[in-house]
Design brief:
Distance between the termini: 47 Å
Largest sheet: 8 strands, parallel, barrel
Helix content: 10-25%
Radius of gyration: 24 Å
Number of strands: 17
Oligomer: single chain
Structural class: alpha/beta
CATH topology of the largest domain: TIM Barrel
Bound molecules: beta-L-fucopyranose
Length: about 500
């Protein structure tokens, strides 16, 4: 009792030392919905449409609704496979470019209601969203703006139809965590029988600000994804990685250095984002577990390995972005065995790697703690509450932390997290290990954000580790430091 009073006296009571203020936020800041989204880290894409049955990637829009016929459709098998991989949500292609709606929409006849599957009474959106609820995953919707079936595509009428489709999806299927707007737009198609090429002005045609207002009204908690946000940005490639330096802030630029729009952006800039950008707009890294987005039997032997998925995890989640992994259901309406197997092993590997943080149980000391106030103590780096963070005095921008283990430990993975509610602050850091009587640098990196992972080439064994913040324009505020040993497969 006396001891704890004394420590509280030195470091300040949990309500804070009088006069010590939290650090001022720096730069653009995430909204609460973006902060919640950052915790998800990994979630799935489900590409499923007539393409699954016609062996195509982009349907023309003239497909017979009867081709959509998943013979053993099993939403629980699908969602369970995702859950085994540690995924926190699933985004379904409710309508891909071919315009076929996987729910019985009132906006077009080109939907599941016109298919003989389940006598025209099927609703894949409902079944997948219900399965997500049963398994504790969040549910999101992909609704392609480009519609190669719709006769009105290219005219103002279609934009109203698109918004109405969104309204149906956002009001009939419970809580939606993400709304995904594809940037692929315009071109040849069926268009109600016209069979022509239609191009639209990608900057103005869709009236995105109004559409996003509708999303905000109907699902205020949903993050909106597009090439330019407003909540999540496309990383600029479909290979599943962000750049090694990837900022959570981003000011997208149009193709002609003018105002950007979905489908009209210098997408390569998405890989790095913009240091000091006006918008908090973290990257989402999309990639398919197979070469194509849709299922093709010829790709059953081309499913990514656990090592490949692990590498992508490190290059997406580990670079402050989210990992959107596409897992396409097959013609039966299930996830194929090779995909199920890899997902299970991947989930096991990630869980086994991160379940035990070697830093917990070690003693930590910081070169500086903000106002010597226990609210900002270094132990916050290993508390599981992301609201608690370690911070330094305003004048201390390059502090160090030392970790002393009771016995030597072996690790090859380093994890650092910033308290992003205060913005992205740190610009560079290094990690040293004590070896042969001196500090040796084991790793150095730049941007942190919600999560930075470093994988060392070789495991290191030591009883002392040092974290050095080497560049930061303001005092750092970190809420996680971890050392782990990558689990074998
Ligand atoms: C692209 C689309 O054209 C692909 O078919 C796929 O849906 C991918 C996620 O986005 O832009």
């Amino acid at each position: 009792m006396l001891l704890s009073l004394t420590i509280a006296g030195v470091l300040g009571a949990s309500t804070g030392t009088p006069g010590v203020q939290p650090p001022s936020p720096f730069g653009s800041l995430p909204s609460p919905r973006q902060i919640a989204h950052a915790h998800l880290e990994t979630y799935a894409f489900l590409h499923f449409s007539p393409n699954t049955f016609t062996d195509r990637e982009w349907g023309n829009g003239d497909e017979d609704p009867n081709v959509f016929n998943p013979t053993r459709f099993d939403p629980d098998q699908i969602v369970a496979a995702l859950k085994a991989a540690g995924m926190e949500g699933a985004i379904l292609t409710c309508k891909h470019h071919d315009g076929f709606c996987l729910w019985p929409t009132k906006t077009t006849e080109h939907s599941i209601a016109s298919s003989s599957w389940r006598g025209g009474h099927g609703d894949v959106v409902k079944e997948i969203s219900d399965a997500c609820k049963r398994h504790g995953l969040k549910f999101g919707v992909y609704l392609s703006p480009w519609d190669r079936n719709n006769a009105h595509y290219g005219k103002p009428e279609y934009v109203s139809i698109y918004r109405e489709q969104l309204r149906e999806l956002l009001t009939q299927y419970g809580s939606i965590f993400e709304v995904w707007h594809d940037g692929a737009n315009g071109g040849s198609g069926y268009y109600g029988g016209a069979r022509e090429t239609r191009s639209i002005d990608r900057k103005t045609y869709y009236g995105w600000p109004q559409t996003w207002e509708l999303v905000r009204k109907l699902q205020p908690g949903a993050c909106i994804f597009s090439d330019i946000g407003p909540d999540l940005r496309w990383v600029g490639n479909e290979s599943g990685y962000a750049a090694d330096t990837s900022w959570s802030t981003y000011d997208p630029v149009g193709e002609q250095n003018d105002a950007p729009a979905p489908g009209y952006v210098k997408s390569e800039l998405g890989e790095t984002g913009t240091r000091g950008g006006r918008h908090w707009l973290p990257a989402e890294c999309d990639v398919s577990i197979r070469p194509g987005w849709f299922w093709h039997s010829s790709e059953d032997s081309k499913v990514k390995s656990v090592d490949q998925l692990t590498e992508l995890y490190f290059k997406s989640v580990g670079r402050g972005a989210s990992f959107l992994l596409n897992v396409p259901p097959n013609r039966e309406g299930r996830i194929s065995d090779p995909d199920v197997e890899t997902l299970k092993e991947f989930g096991h590997r990630i869980r086994a790697t991160f379940e035990h943080n070697l830093v917990s149980g070690a003693s930590l000391s910081a070169s500086n703690t903000r106002g010597n106030d226990s609210r900002f103590r270094v132990e916050n780096l290993i508390s599981n509450d992301s609201k608690n963070y370690w911070a330094t005095d305003d004048s201390v921008m390059t502090p160090t932390i030392e970790i002393q283990f009771r016995q030597v430990k072996t690790f090859d993975v380093i994890r650092l997290r910033e308290a992003i509610q205060l913005g992205q602050r740190v610009e560079a850091f290094a990690v040293d290990v004590w070896k042969d009587g001196e500090w040796k640098e084991a790793a150095a990196a730049t941007s942190v954000g919600s999560c930075r992972l470093i994988r060392l080439d070789e495991p290191v064994t030591t009883d002392r580790v040092r974290l050095r913040i080497t560049r930061s324009p303001v005092c750092p505020a970190l809420n996680g430091f971890g050392l782990f040993l990558l689990a074998k497969k």
